[in-house]
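Re: magnesium ion structure - here you go.
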Amino acid sequence: MSLFDIEKNTSVIKNEDVLNYDYVPKTIPYRENQIQEIADSIKPMLYERSGRNLFIYGAPGIGKTASIKWVLRELSESTDEIIPIYVNCWNLKTKYFIFSEMANQLKLSFTAGKSAEHVLQQIVYKLKNKRAVFVFDEIDKIDDSDFLYQIVSMFPTSSIHLISNNFEYITKIDSRIRSRIILKHIEFRPYNLDEVYGIIKERAKIALRKDAIDTSLLKQIANITFNKRDIRVGIYLLRESAKIAEQDGKRKITKEHVKKAMENVLDKTLEEEKLNKDELLIINITKEHNGDVSGKLFDFYKKKGGKLSYKSFKRYAKNLEKLGILKLELTSGGFKGKSTRIFLN
Ligand SMILES: Nc1ncnc2c1ncn2[C@@H]1O[C@H](COP(=O)(O)OP(=O)(O)OP(=O)(O)O)[C@@H](O)[C@H]1O
Ligand SMILES: [Mg+2]
């Protein structure tokens, strides 16, 4: 048997795409109310009235992005009148990058080398006499929310949706922007155990071969997912244990396969998959110099090629603390009396 010979019918996974985190399922159970509210904010635009603006918030991994993407997909399948624009701000922290991404989605070319304002003007021109839904996901990752003021001024009848897993974000944006964008709040509550089980079972049904996993194991995965409070954990466990089973030449996932997949989860924080290079650099430096004061860590960060200012460095560290990865402790006795020590959590 050669190295690449495969045995027919040993496959456990029927459709691997379904096990990607950004796969948008055909239905999003348990989020019907939120989906209805999102749709209601867009509908008036179909009657030439103004859309509503939303602030969508809730913990990580509980269907905020999936729900909005589901609505946008429905929208684009039913009308060309309203243009959906979805921007994830995670790695697009400045308004230039955000406007360029929007221009890209509108198929506007040649934005390179132009100013942010120029790119915005092109977008305004392209959307002349049209209405749009602008979704800015992970909005709390943005360096400067000022661009929202420009969007709302240029597109006063469109609908703007801001999404965050940090409710506090909204209290921090400039009051000038807040008074201009009246935002209806939509909360996503965490799922209960039955709901988590329902979601995982459905994912397994469309992703895996029939009978590839027993109910007892699905329940075990649902329990772990519920405790970790993030549906991605369950999707990860399904994908990994199915792959381990396939490597093992089996057609069915066993307890041992799930156990092995669990060990892999522990090695690798799920958050790490979504962190950008500065955040990863800060984590690595903290690993090497655990508990050092922030100024010193910043020097090490710079030496390793980090480009952030000290202010942004500290903001990033605070964000990593919110994610439960770092721990910041204010101590007395620093150079100016007070300093922050940074630890790996
Ligand atoms: N009700 C649901 N039905 C089916 N799949 C779901 C449901 N809720 C969440 N998921 C799935 O769980 C995963 C995580 O959901 P999603 O990406 O929407 O999280 P989120 O709330 O946007 O998290 P974050 O704040 O970290 O961005 C996705 O793969 C999504 O498809
Ligand atoms: Mg999301």
